[in-house]
Design brief:
Layout lengths: L2 H13 L9 H30 L2 H11 L4 H17 L4 H14 L14 H15 L11 H16 L5 H13 L3 H12 L12 H4 L38
C-alpha cells in the first residue's frame, strides 16, 4: 500500500470520529446515555431474578424501587429478560412468574401517546410470552420442535394461570393450539398443571413474603372452566382470529 493510500485511510478514520462527524455531539451523548440506561435496566432485572431465587424479599423490594422504568422499551426489556430466563431454564419458571407478579403489582404503567392505552409491565410480559409461544409452530413438523422449550412454555403458562395472570380463555386457546399442531401430550400436561390445585397459588400477588419461590410448594391451580383432557389432534396453522394473551376476561 502506497504512503498516499495510507494517508487517505488515516484521514477517513480521523474524519469519522465523533469530533469530526457531521452528527452533532449531543446526539452521541444521548446515544451513549441511552445505551447506559438499557444496560442498567438489564443488569438490575437480572439482579431481581437472583434475589427472587434466593428468597430475599427485602432486597427485591429495594431493587425494584431502583429500576424505575420510564419508557415502554424498558418495560419490554425487563419482560424479555424474565421470559427468556424462564424458558431457557424451566426450573426457574415459578420464580420468574413470582417476580412478574410482584412487578405487576409495584410498577406503574407507562403513559402512552394520545389515543393509545398505557403500557403495563404485565402487558409487555404477555406480549413477549405470546411471541415465544407462536414461534413454536414456525415449523409444521413436530420432529423439528424443541420439546424442552414446549414444556417450559407449558410450565410458564401454568404458573401465570396459577397467579391469575392468565385467564381461562387464553389457557383454552393455548391448549387448542397445541392440539391443532400435533402436541396433544403437552396440551394434556398443561391441563393437568392448571387442574392440580394448591392453596399457595391463591396468595396475594402484592405480598412479597408470599410470592417468592418456595421449594416445598406444589404446582398448579384449580380450574373449572378451562377444558377437558384431549387425545386427538389435527395439524394446522394458528388461527388468525386468536385471542391476545393480554385480553381481560
Amino acid at each position: 500500500m502506497s504512503s498516499s493510500q495510507v494517508g487517505d485511510q488515516a484521514s477517513m478514520v480521523h474524519m469519522n470520529t465523533p469530533e469530526h462527524s457531521s452528527i452533532p455531539k449531543e446526539v452521541f451523548h444521548r446515544a451513549r446515555a441511552k445505551d447506559a440506561r438499557i444496560q442498567d435496566v438489564e443488569l438490575k432485572t437480572l439482579a431481581l431474578i437472583e434475589n427472587t431465587l434466593e428468597g430475599n424479599a427485602s432486597s427485591l423490594e429495594e431493587s425494584i424501587a431502583q429500576v424505575k422504568p420510564t419508557k415502554k422499551r424498558e418495560l419490554e426489556l425487563m419482560a424479555q429478560i424474565i421470559v427468556s430466563r424462564a424458558l431457557n431454564e424451566a426450573h426457574h419458571c415459578k420464580a420468574c412468574v413470582s417476580l412478574a407478579c410482584v412487578l405487576h403489582a409495584m410498577l406503574p404503567s407507562i403513559p402512552a401517546a394520545r389515543h393509545m392505552k398505557a403500557e403495563s409491565f404485565m402487558h409487555a410480559l404477555l406480549d413477549v410470552f405470546q411471541t415465544e409461544f407462536e414461534k413454536l409452530f414456525g415449523s409444521p413438523s413436530t420432529t423439528q420442535r424443541n420439546e424442552k422449550r414446549i414444556r417450559a412454555i407449558v410450565q410458564f403458562a401454568g404458573h401465570l394461570y396459577c397467579h391469575r395472570l392468565l385467564g381461562n380463555g387464553v389457557v383454552s386457546q393455548i391448549v387448542q393450539d397445541l392440539v391443532d399442531n400435533g402436541e396433544s401430550a403437552f396440551a394434556n400436561e398443561l391441563l393437568w398443571f392448571v387442574g392440580t390445585a394448591t392453596n399457595s397459588c391463591n396468595s396475594d400477588c402484592g405480598n412479597l413474603g408470599t410470592v417468592l419461590e418456595d421449594p416445598n410448594d406444589s404446582d398448579g391451580a384449580s380450574s373449572e372452566s378451562v377444558s377437558q383432557p384431549v387425545n386427538s389432534h389435527h395439524d394446522g396453522e394458528l388461527s388468525p382470529n386468536r385471542k391476545h394473551f393480554c385480553t381481560d376476561e
